[in-house]
């Protein structure tokens, strides 16, 4: 990435009434601002509204604990080498108790050492989904057994949603707010 965003977000007063409505919906919710992909999606407010609703579930209401969700998100962000996504969610993962050693292994593509079988299962499932785009029968059965089927559905959903986020951030060349890079 060049470090120069392709995004030109209009001033609030220059937004259409529908863009303003969706803007207000996003900033009044748990996110509190329009960072990341949301400003890009706002170009198409119909898309922005439904995408942010899925994202609100994935980020704030998943059946998984925060540490498990953040592992799936970080695996996906690293797979897409999304600087902004990594910048945001590596911090959230640390706050949720994911160790720096695990995060560094995910970032570099090394095999992390896990003490928690659920952490390892989320990692293995997210890696399979991102790299091979599916699960073998054995992987599916193992993930369902360890995470429960609602947890497995959430891991699949997290990987899919954060692939969308990462691709948006990459396409718009969104730099990190502090200029840091994890993959360059």
Question: What would you note in describing this structure?
Answer:
With 184 residues, the protein is an all-alpha fold. Helix content is 65%, strand content 0%. The protein has eight helices and no strands. It is globular, with a radius of gyration of 17 Å. It starts with 16 loop residues before the first helix and ends in a 13-residue tail after the last helix. The model has no long low-confidence stretch (mean pLDDT 94).
Total of helices: 8
Q: Give the biggest sheet.
A: none
CA gyration radius, whole angstroms: 17 Å
Distance between the termini: 8 Å
Return the string of H and E elements.
HHHHHHHH
**Secondary structure: helix percent:** 55-70%
Structural class: mainly alpha
Overall geometry comes to globular
Task: Flag low-confidence runs.
Answer: none
Strand content: under 5%
Number of strands: 0
Mean pLDDT: 94
List the helices and strands and how they pair.
Layout: H1 17-27, H2 38-41, H3 45-61, H4 66-79, H5 83-95, H6 100-108, H7 117-132, H8 137-171
